[in-house]
Design a protein that fits this description.
Layout lengths: L2 E8 L6 H17 L4 E3 L11 H7 L7 H13 L2 E10 L5 E8 L5 E6 L5 E3 L5 E3 L11 E4 L4 E4 L8 H9 L4 E3 L6 H19 L2 E4 L3 E3 L5 E3 L3 E3 L5 E4 L6 E8 L1 H9 L2 H4 L13
Parallel strand pairs: 1-2, 2-3, 9-10, 10-11
Antiparallel strand pairs: 1-16, 3-4, 4-5, 6-7, 8-9, 11-14, 12-13, 14-15
Helix pairs in contact: 1-3
């Protein structure tokens, strides 16, 4: 374990996959140019499209997917670990997967993760989301051991389900990831608080690259890509929703130090719960 330079790529993806790939490539190159060895892009890097029919008519299946192909080529060319936060992958005529992937410095895809929790909510002001109308949820969490660091993969709404991150930390992940496209209302209220909690309770770095701003499909996302340390300190943050990069050095030893100070992972115990009625 030791020092490494990491980066978040903040985007404003639209409905055109080719344009989004070009925007990703530009920002990833910029981050690698500043020395980042691990670069993370946001959820839905390849396309942001709310309409299910329009989405399914534009995206492709996993094999030969142009977003994954571009990410693999970039990772190989730049010699970096490139974490494509996610993109939409066609599963059939009616559903897609919200799928992220990690590419090695050789351009090999070493891990794939399908978002587990679907954002099916009704917000104040009439804002409504039904991800399950478009996406098939995944069922398996992922921890990747690169030899230099261990990384857990998750996406956006997963942040509200702490068991994923606990199990990843128990598997040794020093870095927990959360590429996202957070809505503005929930982002303003909960983004930093939830991510900081996941970092503190697991003694891990949290790296979260975000979508930001007004998108072509009518959505508005929060931005504020962030890197948080194992003690809950803000290592770096983009305090806006514009496209850009966040590059910071992190010391992986700090995860071990935090877990030694507060050995919550080691102290955790299984338990049962009793429901007691008190009818009068």
């Amino acid at each position: 374990m030791g020092m490494m330079r990491v980066a978040c790529v903040q985007m404003r993806s639209g409905t055109n996959e080719a344009a989004n790939i070009a925007a990703m490539e530009k920002l990833v190159r910029e981050a690698a140019g500043e020395g980042a060895v691990y670069v993370q892009t946001p959820e839905m890097t390849g396309i942001m499209e709310r309409d299910p029919a329009n989405l399914l008519s534009q995206i492709s299946e996993d094999e030969g997917n142009p977003v994954f192909a571009a990410a693999a080529s970039l990772a190989r060319e730049l010699g970096i670990w490139l974490h494509l936060g996610s993109t939409a992958i066609k599963l059939g005529e009616r559903k897609a997967a919200n799928r992220g992937a990690l590419f090695s410095p050789r351009g090999q895809r070493v891990a794939t993760y399908d978002k587990i929790h679907m954002f099916d909510v009704d917000l104040d002001g009439g804002e409504s989301y039904r991800e399950s109308n478009r996406y098939e949820p995944g069922g398996q969490s992922v921890v990747v051991d690169t030899g230099a660091f261990k990384l857990g993969m998750a996406v956006c709404y997963d942040v509200r389900f702490p068991r994923i991150f606990r199990k990843q930390a128990q598997c040794g992940a020093q870095i927990l990831t959360l590429p996202a496209a957070f809505t503005r209302p929930t982002g303003k209220a909960h983004w930093k608080t939830l991510l900081t909690a996941r970092a503190i309770e697991n003694g891990a770095f949290v790296i979260a690259a975000a979508q930001g701003g007004e998108h072509e499909d009518g959505r508005a996302t929060w931005g504020h890509s962030i890197i948080i340390g194992p003690w809950g300190e803000i290592v770096g943050e983009l305090e806006h929703d514009e496209p850009g990069i966040l590059v910071r050095d992190i010391d992986l030893q700090e995860a071990g130090d935090a877990r030694a100070k507060i050995p919550a992972l080691a102290n955790e115990r299984d338990f049962t719960i009793s429901e007691i009625g008190t009818a009068v």
